[in-house]
Design a protein that fits this description.
The structure is a single chain. This protein has a single domain (4-139), classed as Gcn5-related N-acetyltransferase (GNAT) (Aminopeptidase). Strands 1, 2, 3, 4, 5, 6, 7 and 8 form an eight-stranded mixed β-sheet that branches. 28% of the residues are buried. Helices cover 31% and strands 35% of the residues. It is of the alpha+beta class. A hairpin with a 2-residue loop joins β7 (126-128) and β8 (131-139).
Length: 142
C-alpha cells in the first residue's frame, strides 16, 4: 500500500471523485437520502481528498465557521489511518484559517475516533438521517 496523502480539492474539478466517495459511503452504505447528503454548503466549503497514489479513497469538508463534515473513507481503506490523515489535514487548515474551534456532528460509533483527535462531546445523542449522532468540538491549541 502506498502512503496516503491528503490535498485540498477543487469542488468543481474534483466533484466526480468527491461524489463517488460520499455516494458510496453515505447513500449506498448508510442509506442517507441524497437530498440530505448534497447541500448548498458544498459550494463554500474547503474540500479535501485522501489519495492512495492517484486514487481518491476519502474526503471531508470544512465550512467557513469551522464546521467539519462529510468525513468519509471508502470501505476497503478503513482501518488504514486514512481518516487520521484526512482529519489532520482538515484541522491544520482550520488552524491556518485562524478558526479557534472546530465542530462536527459525529456518528455515535465514531466517537472514540474523534475523541482521540481532541474532540469532546457537547450534546445529547440525536438522530440525523436516521443515524445516532452527537455534536463535538475541538479547541485549537494556542
Amino acid at each position: 500500500m502506498n502512503k496516503i496523502r491528503v490535498r485540498i480539492a477543487d469542488w468543481h474539478k474534483d466533484n466526480a471523485e468527491i461524489r463517488r466517495i460520499r455516494d458510496s459511503v453515505f447513500i449506498a452504505e448508510q442509506s442517507v437520502p441524497p437530498e440530505l447528503e448534497w447541500d448548498a454548503d458544498d459550494i463554500d466549503a474547503v474540500h479535501f481528498l485522501a489519495l492512495e497514489g492517484d486514487y481518491p479513497v476519502g474526503t471531508a469538508r470544512l465550512l467557513p465557521d469551522g464546521q467539519i463534515g462529510r468525513v468519509s473513507v471508502l470501505k476497503d481503506w478503513r482501518g488504514l489511518k486514512v481518516g487520521d490523515a484526512l482529519m489532520s489535514a482538515v484541522i491544520s487548515e482550520a488552524q491556518n484559517r485562524d478558526l479557534k474551534q472546530q465542530m462536527l456532528s459525529a456518528q455515535v460509533q465514531a466517537i472514540p475516533f474523534y475523541e482521540r483527535l481532541g474532540f469532546r462531546i457537547v450534546s445529547e445523542e440525536f438522530l440525523e438521517a436516521g443515524i445516532p449522532h452527537v455534536d463535538m468540538v475541538r479547541d485549537s491549541r494556542a
